[in-house]
Records
---
Amino acid sequence: MTRQKILSESQSYTFRSYLEMPYEADEILAELGYSLIKKHLTLPRSDRYLQRLEELKQRIGKRA
């Protein structure tokens, strides 16, 4: 089954215009020949106390 095209070759897009589209990011990326992979990253750690860290983790977790 052929998918309906999301993007028009005759139109120029800005980063904002991609965000305003009613499509999921993986659908837009697929049309551009890319794929989206969501996963947790292991980043460098700090011993510093970070205020509101738990709140930030919850916010990030809701979007994943």
---
Amino acid sequence: MDAALTVAATGGYDAVHMRTVAERVGIAVGTLYRYFPAKTHLLVAALIREFQRLDASGDWATGASTPQQRLDRLTEHLHDRWQRDPLLTDSMTRAFVMADTRAAAELDRAAAAIETLLARTVA
């Protein structure tokens, strides 16, 4: 996933090819396909991991007195991160939007990770 994120951050969505990612980490492309049937699956899985890491990296439920203030802090943090890496942001967004029904489980997991982060923030 790190390799896919690196490729996406430097070249955008169209630069993310399964063969490129596999070569970058030194595995056979077939091995990568065994776990991720398409690049949308790979990028959505990376998106899930990034939201889970964000949730674990800080206590978004503290530090501000109201749920709205906490949500504002999280939103500002996300906005800053997304603005720093526009190609990566575009890649992750496109993967999430373009994923087909084969990626339904990954999309559900991504939505759950985002919902969990938001719920903790406004709790």
---
Amino acid sequence: MTVWTPNDDGFADLSSHDTFVNGPPHNTFARLRRDDPVSWTEWEGGEGFWNIVRHADITELNRNYQVMSSARGIRMEDQSYQEYLARRTFQETDPPEHLKTRMKVGKAFSRPVVSEFEQQIRDLCQPILDKALAMGTFDATKEISRLLPMMMLGRILGTPDEDLPWLVEKGDALIANTDPDFTDHVLDKMETDEYRMMPFNSPAGAELFDYAHDLLAKKERAGDTDGVLHMIQQPDKDGNVMPEQEFRNFFCLLVAAGNDTTRYSIAAGIQAMCHQPELLGQMQKGGDIWATASDEIIRWATPALYFRRTATCDHDIHGKTIREGDKVLYWWISANRDEEVIEDPHRVDLFRSPNRHMSFGQGGPHVCLGMHLARLEVRVLFEELAKRVKLVEPAGDHKFLRSNFVGGIKELPVTMQAK
């Protein structure tokens, strides 16, 4: 058997965050796709769950929100109905409720609106890259991939630049709340019930709640009506406005998901350049590659490893019966390495077309709201990087997050030689 991930014997425990500290257990997912495409995992931390690992099965079920609902949580953790109501964002709702919120903010993240950010993104990239390249050897996650999404987050939210490092730190504490490098309240290592009404069961949610409240008050006093925050608070056609709790949860989602997913895609792309030297030459030739490169880098990264659904009724698939109320995990990371759909999936092909990756949750009502912005940020960053360097190589071992939910490289030592 080809070994894709160290220490993965093909039977990894998918419920354990420790399983993923060396990267996703691709040997296990390959075995499951081949031999057991709908498998059950017992879990010491709560109720067990089903694993859906084939691209075709995830595609089919992802469209069927009537049978597989998002309205009971999107992570494997159990939560009461009261906790769900307190912590949910529009990600944890089904149509038509989901679409009502999505339509409010959809325009701000539409392709035409996002395209207007290109020059601004390019202007942000240039000093970031110039400063990093002057170092020669550095942590690419810290010096490159973390900074661009952080700066763009500030532009979208309308927050002062001096607040951004704090915001990103709190976003990390939310979405990477199983990694002790990012939070003092590690979800599976200590008692966190005190924060069970906060997003991701994290105290960082309370701090972000307060910040969002103060930020909105300042904007209202200044008559600032630009951006997503103002848009999301406008009444719908029936005159209803988003409740304060829901608005604060949405703010936390923007801070966490809006920054981390793009950061880890950029880091994965640089990591790929270290181990496939031909990628830099392909980027430098330019041309048609920029129509496909972003999606391939994002496929390779798969920042969200899975999303959970909950069965609303009994459902038979591959000889198994998923019972009403069972948790069902869609493993995007497995679908993005499915040999039946993705040719040579463990290699980065920047010209891959079509690219049927599922990093954005394609095929269902919950397709990623920020996908156009993520593609643009990734493309522009690598365009600007390719202009400036003649060599990219590893300067040490890269390290992954301790998380089975967020797939990300948290340390990436590299050496880059400027042209």
